[in-house]
Amino acid sequence: QVQLVESGGGLVQPGGSLRLSCVASGIGSRIGFSTFAMRWYRQAPGKQRELVAVIASGGSTNYADSVKGRFTISRDNAKNTVYLQMNSLKPEDTAVYYCNAGWGTQDYWGQGTQVTVSS
Predict the structure, then answer these.
(1) What contacts 8, CB < 8 A, 6 or more positions away?
(2) pLDDT digits over 79-112, tens only?
């Protein structure tokens, strides 16, 4: 069974930085972590879950307009890990951040990690 485990969330002041990590386990060697598109979503209280960033198997990336220029998604296929570097954080970035792995009909989610931006 594929599992995704996020870490790196916490409380940070506006303008600060955090790096989220998501480690995948249970992915068979036949398919491999590198095959999966990896995504970060977030959900703020009372709001719908929104896509923050995606990195394709080939390494191309896309970002929500609200985080462009501030967030960077990357992956280390040797470590089965995807990262989200978040700089210049704003109070409106406060949310639970979720990692997602997708390939074909396969779709997996982590349990989420809380990010709170507050002074």
Answers:
(1) 18, 19, 20, 21, 113
(2) 999 999 999 999 999 999 999 999 989 899 999 9
Quick one: which of 114, 110, 119 has its CA closest to 6? 110
Residue 42's CB is within 10 A of a number of other CB atoms, namely 24
Contact (Cβ atoms closer than 8 angstroms) between residue 48 and residue 34? no
pLDDT confidence of residue 30: 74
Alpha-helix residue ranges (DSSP H) falling in the chain = none
Among residues 3, 41, 12, 4, which one has the least CA distance to residue 115?
A: 12
Beta pairing partners, 117: 12
Please report, in angstroms and rounded to a whole number, the separation of the first and last CA atoms in the chain: 40
Give phi and psi for 118, each to the nearest 5.
Answer: -160, 150
3-state secondary structure of 25: strand
Bridge partners of residue 116, in order along the sequence = 11
